[in-house]
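Severity: low
Component: inverse-folding endpoint
Summary: output formatting inconsistent between runs
Steps to reproduce: submit the following structure tokens with default settings.
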């Protein structure tokens, strides 16, 4: 836990300043499906979730959230992603709002970012809730990527630090930050750099799109083990690709990793990360087709024969983050309602039915493996 960070409040939960590290998760059910979301919240609470995040994209989701709020005492956070104007509607129902600095430019393009953040702060102040500045590798604010010439780590750290400076100027202190990447090493570098720069600001730790078990837990541990023992990290999430029935495992693994770190138990996986890397998102309310998790599992199974090749394949659940988060992968797929878009790096190869995409992916993978650079 960050001893030097200041304490913030998410309703009655203290984060930072030496408080026990809070463990959180996110619902992967559709927010408008109130019953299913309440069931998932209950299963996460049962495993000891301190805070549960929900995605809200439209007014139907806001209506669902209001109903959810009436029926649970769980601490709730909302993820705004691109639709920051919804903050005003969700604030009465939640304890914390996460905004992504890299998504603020999508709407009200002519309005300065400073003004948008000022407006978010006024809402947080009105409702007495916390904010998270959630910077993510696949959606870094373009002005920072440009300024640091595509140096992702620098752009992530500087974007987070800029927002902290602005929030300070607005006299708002009830905030924390997250700096997430799918590469555990980059998570370590970003968080160490940020913590050195702003030791006072509480940090939410996570390896984004860590993927399926068991690799998702291993990647997350590799990052957390290099940060938490050094006092970096005040709350965490283990982001895993799981079916809705198994979502509780995010809390289970979060608690288990903390327990092991506190007991001085660390993992040793010398060959990990040297071969094929499958990254996949943990899914959320934005998932456009329930077949996403099955597809991620099938991709893992189908590509096992290429396990010794140092390549990355990304599998993402929606069109909000999918296109950006697959750009750096050697091969990437992101899932729409009935079609899956296949990409090679940032180039779109085409869109295919769920039942037809695997053979096309395999052909591309074979081509890459047999290309002179990989033989
Ligand atoms: S990629 Fe889309 S579905 Fe997956 S977690 Fe991110 S927003 Fe949710």
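Observed output (run 2 of 3):
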């Amino acid at each position: 836990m960050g001893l030097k960070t200041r304490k913030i409040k998410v309703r009655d939960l203290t984060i930072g300043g030496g408080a026990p590290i809070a463990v959180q998760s996110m619902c992967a059910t559709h927010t408008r499906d109130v019953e299913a979301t309440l069931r998932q919240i209950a299963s996460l609470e049962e495993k000891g979730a301190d805070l549960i995040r929900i995605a809200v994209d439209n007014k139907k989701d806001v209506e669902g959230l209001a109903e959810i709020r009436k029926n649970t005492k769980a601490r709730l956070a909302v993820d705004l992603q691109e639709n920051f104007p919804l903050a005003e509607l969700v604030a009465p129902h939640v304890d914390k709002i996460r905004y992504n600095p890299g998504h603020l430019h999508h709407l009200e393009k002519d309005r300065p970012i400073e003004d948008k953040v000022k407006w978010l702060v006024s809402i947080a102040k009105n409702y007495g809730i916390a904010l998270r500045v959630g910077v993510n590798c696949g959606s870094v604010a373009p002005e920072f990527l440009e300024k640091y010439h595509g140096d992702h780590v620098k752009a992530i750290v500087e974007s987070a630090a800029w927002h902290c400076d602005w929030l300070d100027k607005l006299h708002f202190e009830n905030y924390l930050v997250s700096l997430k990447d799918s590469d555990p090493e980059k998570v370590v570098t970003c968080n160490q750099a940020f913590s050195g720069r702003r030791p006072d600001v509480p940090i939410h730790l996570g390896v984004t799109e860590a993927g399926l078990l068991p690799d998702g837990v291993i990647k997350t541990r590799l990052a957390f083990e290099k940060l938490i023992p050094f006092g970096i990290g005040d709350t965490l999430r283990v982001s895993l690709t799981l079916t809705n029935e198994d979502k509780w495992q995010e809390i289970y693994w979060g608690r288990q990793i903390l327990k092991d770190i506190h007991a001085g138990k660390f993992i040793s996986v010398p060959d990990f990360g040297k071969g094929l890397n499958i990254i996949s998102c943990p899914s959320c309310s934005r998932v456009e087709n329930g077949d996403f998790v099955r597809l991620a599992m099938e991709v893992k199974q189908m590509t096992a024969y290429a396990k010794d090749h140092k390549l990355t394949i990304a599998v993402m659940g929606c069109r909000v983050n999918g296109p950006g988060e697959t750009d750096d992968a050697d091969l990437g797929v992101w899932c729409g309602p009935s079609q899956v878009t296949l990409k090679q790096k940032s180039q779109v190869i085409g869109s295919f039915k769920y039942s037809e995409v695997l053979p096309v992916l395999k052909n591309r993978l074979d081509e890459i493996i047999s290309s002179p650079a990989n033989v």
